[in-house]
Specification:
9 strands, about 675 residues, single chain, alpha+beta, disordered C terminus
């Protein structure tokens, strides 16, 4: 009965989404306050219904109700409780239900916290959000129903893909979807503005916190997915330029450009048309990622669906929303004012250059991702566009962007003195150059690019700190005064510094592990040792182990310094999940400061030895630590009262507005 309740709630949610789409927008055209207000209860109630539907599916997984086709295909009675719950979205149908749940959640947030928005704008935003919900709820009900019954019910399930039976499934998809779907709010704001034919700095102030929240979650989702692949697949890499990886990177790049463009629009009323276009394109890239993962056009460890009918349905959604929004933009763009003017050397100019480089990099990744698919569709030939292409095109585009990042916060609005900003950054530049020289001289004299890359990362970190130093007057005024100035700075200033510092930390980690890592592949038996970068790894023993729904052979390694000092043990294993007869490799990882020793097991040799792959990965943890710092920067910026969603106007501002209205 619970399953039927969940299905019925989903049908009701679809009907309510139709109401949310039509009534508020019609009310806006008719100037009917009553009709415009229908969107708010519709959005909140729709979220409650979808949450109920999702909860019934989770309950079916927890109870191992194998009369439900989705549960039978993706669960097993012996599976640990955590993986039963996460298995709810470890498949196409369940993950799409999570997708629309988050979509409705954001719509409900607008309804609850958007009370300070103009009524017509809020009505149109909720109407567009409802239209997106309509499309995807219909997609689920027609092609991806998670509540299909089996009769008779099997006694046991087929189990979840073993690669997905990991804590990463509990974190990565929800974070990623919060980012993907979060950009739908920016999209809805853009379409609402185009419907009204009016856009101003207030619009940018309203849309920026939603964009920032989505960007923050997407940053975390990409980082978690990277780390999950790193330790779960046993390959030792953090990024492979897989098309589905690229599908998540594309909206992140677009969202980063949108954030900076919205800042210019909010502060200087400039780049209005460009900001609206970016809002449309960023969510369009999110929809494209959804299509790539679920259409069957890609074969990837990340891909969920291989049903062409689903792909055609999502393609129709893409054509409707992307084509329709771009057509509306083309129709309305001529009537929108371009915004204020500024000099090329200014903070606006730096942010425009930032946008230019980011959008060009986005186009490069998009072309590299879609080109093989287009070639196969048109002429039937299969080609591969891999890491060499992206490294040679994406890297050179990002290099100048990273160089100019520290200049942006130090430049004045409208007109700036580039030489004055450069003087302020002399200390940061000198320190970064010194680090680069030391890296070259003491670490790796074979790679000048590695030394320059590490220096560039330091430049980003110190450049971000320089902005805080000069804004607080540290070194020029008494320490107490500098501290009060620092404490009084807007939270968004600290958020920007953290985000740029996090980018620098990630840069250092990527360069270090790419250029300086060491690898050994050896055949070992218990008692054998291998030396790698000042450490000795001894193969101690191989022992069997039985888990709740798997068996494995665990290899125990003892790690010591070459001087004899003990550094602990590492356990690496090969698992077999009997239900699916699928093996997995569980890497053993030992974190030593910011670096890691990574041990992965291969197959046995004819002589009985075990092939062992060992990597020394210097500063690799900075890749994900930097992402966490970037997320922290986004969170701190959201705490800024000027960006907080739904923050009321200060009393003085309200009084001034009232006086202006009465004048």
């Amino acid at each position: 009965m619970n399953i039927e309740l969940g299905h019925f709630a989903l049908v009701l949610a679809f009907a309510l989404a139709v109401v949310q789409t039509c009534v508020p927008i019609i009310g806006g055209r008719m100037r009917s306050e009553l009709l415009m207000r229908v969107g708010e209860p519709a959005a909140i109630t729709g979220f409650a219904l979808i949450a109920l539907s999702f909860a019934t599916l989770v309950l079916a997984y927890v109870q191992s109700d194998f009369s439900v086709l989705n549960v039978w295909e993706n669960s097993h009675a012996a599976k640990p409780l955590l993986f039963k719950i996460t298995g709810t979205w470890g498949n196409h149908e369940g993950s799409m239900l999570l997708w629309v749940l988050i979509l409705s959640f954001f719509g409900a947030l607008v309804a609850v916290f958007g009370r300070n928005l103009p009524l017509s704008l809020r009505a149109n935003v909720l109407g567009v959000q409802g239209a997106i919900g309509c499309a995807f709820l219909l997609f689920i009900l027609v092609t991806s129903n998670p509540f299909t019954r089996l009769s008779p019910a099997p006694m046991q399930g087929k189990d979840l893909n073993p690669i997905l039976q990991d804590i990463g499934l509990a974190v990565h998809p929800p974070l990623l979807y919060l980012g993907y779907v979060g950009f739908s709010i920016a999209f809805s704001f853009a379409i609402a503005a185009l419907i009204e034919g009016r856009i101003d700095a207030a619009w940018a102030r309203w849309v920026r916190p939603w964009t920032l929240a989505a960007w923050m979650f997407l940053t975390g989702g990409i980082a978690m997915g990277s780390y999950w692949a790193y330790y779960e697949l046993g390959w030792g890499g953090f990024w492979f330029w897989d098309p589905v990886e690229n599908a998540s990177l594309l909206p992140w790049l677009g969202g980063t450009a949108l954030l900076h463009s919205a800042l210019v629009m909010e502060k200087r009323s400039a780049l209005k048309i460009w900001t609206v276009l970016l809002a449309i394109l960023t969510f369009s890239l999110s929809l494209l990622g959804t299509f790539l993962v679920r259409s069957g056009v890609l074969t990837s460890v990340h891909a969920f669906a291989t049903d062409p009918a689903r792909g055609v349905f999502i393609l129709a959604i893409l054509v409707l929303f992307i084509g329709g929004s771009l057509a509306l933009f083309a129709w309305r763009a001529a009537s929108l004012s371009a915004g204020g003017l500024f000099q090329p050397i200014s903070r606006e100019g730096a942010l425009v250059l930032n946008n230019l480089l980011l959008t060009t990099a986005t186009a490069t990744v998009l072309i590299g991702t879609l080109y093989p698919l287009l070639i196969e569709a048109v002429i039937g030939d299969k080609i591969s566009v891999g890491p060499p292409f992206f490294n040679l095109t994406f890297g050179p585009l990002m290099l100048p962007l990273l160089v100019i990042v520290p200049f942006g916060p130090l430049l004045a609005w409208k007109r700036a003195d580039l030489w004055a900003a450069a003087q302020r950054l002399f200390a940061a530049f000198g320190a970064a150059l010194l680090v680069a020289l030391l890296s070259y001289a003491l670490v790796d004299q074979a790679s000048v690019l590695a030394a320059l890359g590490i220096g560039l990362g330091v430049w980003l970190v110190l450049g971000a700190l320089t902005d805080l130093v000069f804004k607080s007057g540290l070194g020029k005024v008494p320490a107490a005064v500098a501290w009060r100035r620092l404490a009084g700075l807007p939270r968004s200033v600290f958020g920007t510094a953290l985000a740029h510092s996090g980018l620098g930390l990630t840069m250092i980690g990527i360069v270090s592990v790419t250029a300086l890592q060491a690898e050994r592949i050896v055949a070992m038996q218990p008692g054998d040792t291998v030396e790698i970068r000042g450490h000795v790894l001894r193969f101690d023993s191989l022992r069997p182990f039985t888990g709740p729904n798997y068996t494995e052979d665990q290899a125990l390694f003892v790690l010591t310094r070459t001087t004899g000092a003990e550094r602990g043990t590492i356990v690496s294993s090969k698992r077999l999940y009997p239900a699916r007869q699928m093996p997995t490799t569980e890497a053993g990882i030992k974190t030593l400061g910011l670096s890691q020793l990574y041990v992965s097991l291969g197959d046995k040799t004819p002589s009985g030895s075990l092939v062992v792959r060992i990597w020394w990965k210097p500063l690799v943890t900075l890749i994900w630590l930097g992402a966490l710092v970037m997320m922290a920067g986004g969170a701190v910026s959201l705490l800024d009262r000027r960006l907080r969603v739904g923050a009321p106007m200060p009393r003085k501002a309200m009084a001034a507005a009232a006086r202006g209205g009465n004048a």
